[in-house]
Amino acid sequence: MNHTKNYGLPQWELNDLIRMEDFNRAMTSIESGLDSNAAAANEAKADAASAKIVANTAKTTADTALAAKPYVVGSYTGTGAEMTINLGFRPSFVVVSGLKETMATNTTTDFDRYFGMSAGNIMTHRLAFTDKGFVVFPSNLLNYYYPDYTDKGRRYDYIAFK
């Protein structure tokens, strides 16, 4: 009896006596090969699923990084008292503007009194950084502390950089 070159499966010829052992060995060999292929396919699927998870995680991280701005903008209305503005991070630089919406240019007095910026090193009696944002302090009427970031009823815009 002849056998196939690659897998050793029986190749019967007309005058060969078919024996049960030859048949069973061939079927066992075929089943073993199919099992190996199925295991390899399952392993490839698991690897592909793992690679997909890694790729999705990388995409999410990249999307988050692209969406994350190095600053936050917001607004508040002055109360005339000390106010804490929560940003969720300690800013490195803050710009606050309480300039009024107007068709005419804001006067120098408006600009001086309601606009300012700080890197946290000056104007600490007007605006101080915290681990989660910044604090604005009320104007001291006796010493005329300006800029005033808490003027009651005045709307303020800010941009805070991380």
Short characterization:
With 162 residues, the chain is of the alpha+beta class.
Describe the model.
This protein has 162 residues and is α+β, with helices and mostly antiparallel strands. The protein has two domains: 2-67; 71-161, no CATH class. Helix content is 34%, strand content 24%. It has two helices and nine strands. It has a four-stranded antiparallel beta sheet with strand order 3-9-5-6. A hairpin with a 6-residue loop joins strand 1 (2-3) and strand 2 (10-11). The longest helix is centred in the first third of the chain and has 48 residues, at 20-67. The termini are far apart. The model has no long low-confidence stretch (mean pLDDT 83).
- Largest sheet descriptor: 4 strands, antiparallel
Query: Quick one: overall form?
Result: rod-shaped
Poorly predicted regions are none
Instruction: Average the pLDDT over all residues and give the rounded result.
Output: 83
Question: For the terminal residues, how far apart are their CA atoms?
Answer: 81 Å
- Largest sheet: spatial strand order: 3-9-5-6
Number of strands: 9
* Tally of helical segments: 2
